[in-house]
Write a structure and sequence with these properties.
homodimer, 361 residues, alpha/beta, Rossmann fold, Dehydroquinate synthase-like, alpha domain, 2 domains, 7-stranded mixed sheet, 44% helix
Chain lengths: 361, 361
């Protein structure tokens, strides 16, 4: 087992990464304060892993909520339903919520924990690659609004993250690939050596070699933990983690949540960011080509879906949370391993990149 | 004008208290970061004060939301409606919400600000005595659940509190009296001199003498600001501010929100807390009598409504947020000016106090 710590003073917490961690009471119990725990999972993950998790909660008063699968569940109504269950079971302020599932389950559960009684504890037990390397770490919680992704939420740090890479055995190929988009992202924004490691190990990751997966999860979490510790509330460098996300959210919203997976949209978004960076003279053409090649090897899209017009994409980007004083800010690349947040991009270059992306490469 | 500061490091903020402050751009504008502001008010306060406030926002993109009056509005659905409006107007993360109204408007607006895009700025412009002395200061925001008051919420500090005591001119007598319950509370929990000042000035306050009101608001806010600065998240002494509130919330929930005003329920709750403290030998009978006498002079109830049975009250108290590891904790009095939070009360004494309160004094 590998253990990292997200350093946030009194609210610091461990990330445990390894095989067979899901039922280990010794990891979970010391992070719980009260005697009541609610496990939130979904109809896909629950049947696979709930029985493995429950022994870690033996002796507590345990409630279980099983949500429908998919991004469409990530609404304020779902959170209200969880709160109804907490109220019905009379869960007290020292209770804990345990998120067993992917990013959607984690975001919903964390947000319910953030607002129930003005904040109760929660633990992340991520079962997808995307959740293990990204969404379970850092305290961003929330749900979607019909007009924009993650527009309702809170910063609320978990008490622990327990990433059992054995759960990736049952992950569909498409979701494994989508998770790799966020893994590649860490290399792009701040860890060139990791990007190069990924260039060497992509096929091993796709073949689910356990050592490769554990290494990728650990290096991703280490990058994320460092960024979060330095900038919990996204005042500065944390925004770099959104590389590809402004484009990606526009794609997800435009297609309707869940048509493309989040990681797929982010992969296409990172390619658009790379092309815009190249067109502005910031990024070398060879670097842009390496980025597209690695994402293509991961089986990820490198362009937005043709049914979304450039005008529609640009419109959807305007509701992004990074808009400040009316100006859209984007994360762009100076090199592989070096990203910047900027409002100082060329609107004409952006249009040209969105137009060009419609044509077959 | 009197100005206090709530000391919370980078998130410190001013409380301005005085007459004619509501339209002063010099107080409001330096606290706003972006160019978009949404004023949230209700159908009673809006017609009286919105026109006075708007000049302070001149030059900004301003949206206005007018809610129905009353505690029944304080729901997650209302917050969702405000977020719909923010999304429709494409308000960015650097926007601000301005709460113009009483505690209900402030709690709703603050919570909407807490969860919109994971937190945007808000300013409190309280127009009731209750809001000026209590709910606008300290960052507790939230809404009610059908099964319990304030069960959904967040800690989210305002950027400023602008308490214009001129707005109290239009406050109904009943609401003025309800606000005085929280004023008396500060004397009871930590400021004996203030309690004695109130014994001398209660009639002046009921007659709305401006100097008396400003003094009462300032001394109340000073007490609250000190408590909040020492314990923002209610890990310790902040819980003392809940004197009378566990009983009071049970009364409000039992009758249905809005039947009794919050302050009325708290007044009855403080009397119950005083009687329980007396029965346990903690509080002198003369002190208990002085408390009841002062609240009675303020025209406030000193016992719960007869239609709520002791058993029903006790049941409703069990869902209080202060329950820890299954044990109810109560704020009780050692003396006028000295309160303690304790789970160490006598359940039989509590029953006896609830029973005795049903009989005419």
């Amino acid at each position: 087992m590998r253990t990292l710590t997200v350093e946030l003073g009194e609210r610091s917490y461990p990330i445990h990464i390894g095989t067979g961690l899901i039922g280990r009471a010794d990891l979970l119990r010391p992070r719980l304060r009260g005697t009541q725990a609610m496990v939130v999972t979904n109809e896909v993950v629950g049947p696979l892993y709930l029985e493995r998790l429950l022994p870690a909660l033996e002796g507590l008063e345990v409630e279980t909520v099983v949500l429908p699968d998919g991004e469409a569940t990530k609404t304020l109504e779902t959170v209200a339903g969880i709160i109804d269950r907490l109220m019905a079971a009379r869960f007290a302020r020292d209770c804990a919520l345990v998120a067993l599932g992917g990013g959607v389950v984690g975001d919903i559960t964390g947000f319910a924990a953030a607002i129930y009684q003005r904040g109760v504890d929660f633990v992340q037990v991520p079962t997808t690659l995307l959740a293990q390397v990204d969404s379970s770490v850092g305290g961003k919680t929330g749900v979607n609004h019909p007009a924009g992704k993650n527009m309702i939420g809170a910063f609320h740090q978990p008490r622990a993250v327990i990433a059992d890479v054995a759960t990736l055995d049952t992950l569909p190929d498409r979701e494994l690939r989508a998770g790799l988009a966020e893994v590649v992202k860490y290399g792009l924004i701040r860890d060139r050596a990791f990007f190069e490691w990924l260039e060497g190990r992509m096929e091993a990751l796709l073949a689910r070699e356990p050592d490769a997966l554990a290494e990728a999860v650990e290096r991703s979490c280490r990058n994320k933990a460092e960024v979060v510790a330095a900038d919990e509330r996204e005042a500065g460098q944390r925004a770099l983690l959104n590389l590809g996300h402004t484009f990606g959210h526009a794609i997800e919203t435009g297609l309707g949540y869940g048509t493309w997976l989040h990681g797929e949209a982010v992969a296409a978004g990172m390619c658009l960011a790379a092309r815009l960076s190249e067109r502005m003279g910031w990024l070398a053409p060879e670097a842009r080509a390496r980025i597209e090649a690695l994402l293509a090897r991961a089986g990820l899209p490198t362009a937005p879906p043709p049914e979304l017009s450039p005008a529609r994409l640009r419109e959807l980007m305007a509701v992004d949370k990074k808009v400040q004083r009316g100006r859209l800010r984007l994360v762009l690349l100076r090199a592989i391993g070096e990203a910047v947040v900027t409002a100082d991009f060329d609107e004409a270059a952006l249009s040209a990149v969105l137009e060009a992306a419609r044509e077959p490469a």
